[in-house]
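Bumping with the actual sequence this time:
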Amino acid sequence: MVLKLVNTKLMYKPYISNDTLLFPPNLGDFIPQDAPVRLISEIVDLMDLKEIHASYSTSSDGQPPYHPAMLLKVVIFGYMNNIFSTRGLESAMTCDAHLIWLSSYQFPDHTTISRFKTRCMPHIKVIFTRLVTILAERGEIKLTEDLYIDGTTIRSRAARRRIKWRSNAEKFGASADADIQEGVKALLEQVENGDSMDDNNAGHVSYTTEEAREIADRIERRAQKEGLKKVRGKITAIRNACDRKEAHDRTLEQCAGRCGVAPTDPDCGIMHAKEDGYEGMATPNYNVQIATQNQYVTNYGAYDSAEDKSIAMDFVDTCVEENGVKPSAVVEDAGYGCEEVYVGLEERQIEAVVKYPGYDAETMRRPVKEGQYDRLAFRLSPDESSLVCPAGHMMRVIRTEEAYTRSGFRSDSTVMTCDHCDGCPFKEKCILTKSKRGEIHRKLGNIREERKAKARLDMPANQKKLKRRSREPEPVFGQLKHNHGYTRFRHFGKTGVTMDPGFVFMALNILKLHKNMKKSA
């Protein structure tokens, strides 16, 4: 019997750490041909970055700077892969083959990247518009066609609980002013033998903070010369009250008519956000508006107002001005539907495919039975000067109250009543009888524009646009917040807040273009 020895030793492929290669490989060989990083490099190379080039010094002193195109590619790649911090990008550039290939074996530190982003701040919208132009040249979008507009709230970097409210500033400012008046009068009464007669402010009903400080300084100098007693405390109280009054006045100035202000980021607005659950207090946020087509972001803007309708026309004008093309139609949801938007789009000769708040309810509700009260049945009279009540009676106009929107658009409110309520079968249920004065307030101009809007919205072509709207800006916001985790800004002030979404939306547009190219391949 012959025994055979079996070799049980495991065999591995050769592995030698730090092995020196005779011919070093090309890093580009490790980057797939259809990788998004190659598309980033191709797109940025097509851009004209003359504004960025002009911001660099032409002096020959010191080290030459990194190329702006390389830094822009690196930043866009970072935003595409959820690397928003400059330190995180600096770290990734030493270990990510895609970034090393993009930078061509150059390794700028986080300070250099941060300074480059700051250098891009005043020119970010121009750079973004050039990317949109490239997409239009590739046939991905047509700026002359419909634009789909929507907005979302993104949290400011400001502290959520350190808000100065306008109501508190008004209340405490008035209290500080009262302390100033009482303090000055008490101080003048104490030293009235001679000083009050020489006071230039004698006879004033109230004193400003400057006048109060001047009086306090003058009496302090006199107290030092004449040895007046028990005035130092009153002088200190007046100065403290002046400091409080000026601080509250600065808060009111920063509020600029808004309900409050975040001291660290006065440009943001105090509004409710979906992330806050709508149940807590309002927090510092920005209302970010985007215009999309084929899920490409064609323009964007950050605003301090939570009302979409108050900023709608400003954003439309921004799109037309920066893109250089007027769209044929603007498609928006019911949050934008108001007289200001309808009239504004008509003046600009842009079709308004914009819902108004009650459009869906009117379209889907069941017909009201004969003899049944319908609280929504107040309709325009034939001459459009008044309303007809649900019982069919013409209402009488009492007066017209002048009103303006936040943007300055005039939208008057008409006060009306009905003289035929006695014996009316709907008297017990009518909203007129439930009113203390038997009056209702309606904006007839808004109702007229809503009637015109309903005729447009009921057209089959516009119905298709309304259905498409839910597949346009909303998926972009989902991609931004859910997939990329971008739910809070990383800069203070309107300039920084405008810059950051510019890089984000450029990254999303290139990523969308890459996916479309793979589908068509």
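The tokens above came from a reply further down the thread. The two ends are 66 Å apart (CA to CA).
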